[in-house]
């Protein structure tokens, strides 16, 4: 249990809520900021301007582990014995892993058919009780909150404020890599809006502590099939307003979703969420970081994912929304070609192989790279390779 080997707890003075003896760590947060000249040039940016923070390199393959190490430490502090979460997949994988690491019983709620197989296989392998509900993530979220209240289970969704404390460290690692200087932009996918909320809090605190001079701007990218935040901010003009968020706008919006029996849909299943639980905290982050929000199509996400695969370490579809969104922001001139940008690639390339294989197999996209069928014949194979 080496705290200095955790990319979260080596910043423990900045998330100071837990005595060391309760801390749960499995070596999360050993991730680094990587400059990517090839993608920068492809996007028409200055070659040294673009950086990728690949959080897929965490123990369970996503950024969630940054939050779980903190939340499970708190669970140990308060003597929890069993825990639960709703999930589009990565939360369940991470919860299941940390739960067996510290001996907690664990139940995860999944929307039936709405999870990538890499993630589902992790929850099962790590021994979580896995409950599939005939509904979407938002249904699961509602049910798990009721179950946790009724049965006294420890809730591990990003409603849990200790999750967000751990996720702040993703930003610490980025600015550490840049010499304790903020980049011009942080770009992050938006689902339940835990990351964006945590990032805003991180920068507010660093500024207050005098550890940085200025905060970066924040760009939050939805999928068009799950774009509640984009709609509320850009069209309904929902703002933080010093903490006086206009609740009527939100209530009317959700009432309309219910009336239309709306269910979100995107190939980026990780962010297939229409009632983000951290909406208000995210509005605060947008206020702190002069943020922008936008939505990108599934096609744009898949193209961006293939680009990241071709020139970087790859990522899962939701993570690629960052590069797809950045393309729009560059085209609009919101982001300048020489602005220093850090995109957070939230999940590992192997989480959702179906989307990847289908893209390459079925499409003639710019980066489509379908396998070639050849007869089982040496001469034919040699002819083809030549
Ligand atoms: N990227 C990935 C890979 C995710 O798994 C998630 C969320 C997000 C982005 C969105 O992050 O919620 O902080 O805005 N996945 C959750 C889950 C909802 O259940 O695994 P957010």
Automatic annotation (TrEMBL):
Presence of keyword Lyase: yes
Keywords in alphabetical order: Lyase, Pyridoxal phosphate
N6-(pyridoxal phosphate)lysine: residues carrying this PTM: 64
Names of required cofactors: pyridoxal 5'-phosphate
GO biological process entries: isoleucine biosynthetic process; L-serine catabolic process; L-threonine catabolic process; threonine biosynthetic process
Record EC number: 4.2.3.1
Listed Pfam families: PALP
Single GO MF descriptor: L-serine ammonia-lyase activity
Tryptophan synthase beta chain-like PALP domain span: 25-347
Family membership: Belongs to the threonine synthase family.
Protein name: Threonine synthase
């Amino acid at each position: 249990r080496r705290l200095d080997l955790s990319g979260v707890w080596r910043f423990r003075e900045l998330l100071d809520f837990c005595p060391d003896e309760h801390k749960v760590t499995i070596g999360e947060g050993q991730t680094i900021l990587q400059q990517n000249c090839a993608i920068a040039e492809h996007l028409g940016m200055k070659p040294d301007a673009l950086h990728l923070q690949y959080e897929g390199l965490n123990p369970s393959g996503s950024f969630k582990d940054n939050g779980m190490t903190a939340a499970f430490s708190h669970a140990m502090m308060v003597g929890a014995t069993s825990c639960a979460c709703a999930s589009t997949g990565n939360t369940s994988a991470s919860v299941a892993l940390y739960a067996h690491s510290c001996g907690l019983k664990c139940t995860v709620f999944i929307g039936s058919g709405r999870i990538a197989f890499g993630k589902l296989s992790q929850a099962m392998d790590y021994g979580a009780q896995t409950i599939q509900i005939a509904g979407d993530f938002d249904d699961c979220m509602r049910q798990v909150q009721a179950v946790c209240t009724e049965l006294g289970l420890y809730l591990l969704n990003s409603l849990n404020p200790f999750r967000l404390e751990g996720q702040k460290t993703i930003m610490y690692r980025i600015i550490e890599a840049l010499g304790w200087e903020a980049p011009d932009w942080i770009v992050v996918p938006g689902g339940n809006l835990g990351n964006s909320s945590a990032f805003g809090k991180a920068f507010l605190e660093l500024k207050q502590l005098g550890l940085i001079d200025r905060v970066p701007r924040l760009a939050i990218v939805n999928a068009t099939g799950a774009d509640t935040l984009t709609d509320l901010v850009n069209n309904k003009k929902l703002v933080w307003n010093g903490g006086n968020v206009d609740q009527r706008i939100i209530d009317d919006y959700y009432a309309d979703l219910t009336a239309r029996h709306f269910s979100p849909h995107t190939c980026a299943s990780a962010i297939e969420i229409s009632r983000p639980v951290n909406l208000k905290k995210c509005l605060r982050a947008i206020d702190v970081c002069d943020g922008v929000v936008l939505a990108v199509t599934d096609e744009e996400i898949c193209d961006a994912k293939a680009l990241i695969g071709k020139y970087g370490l790859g990522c899962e579809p939701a993570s690629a929304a960052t590069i797809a969104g950045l393309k729009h922001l560059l085209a609009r001139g919101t982001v300048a070609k020489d602005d220093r940008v850090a995109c957070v690639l939230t999940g590992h390339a192997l989480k959702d192989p179906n989307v990847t294989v289908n893209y390459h197999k079925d499409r003639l996209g710019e980066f489509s790279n379908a396998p070639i069928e050849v007869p089982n014949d040496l001469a034919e194979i040699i002819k083809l390779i030549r």
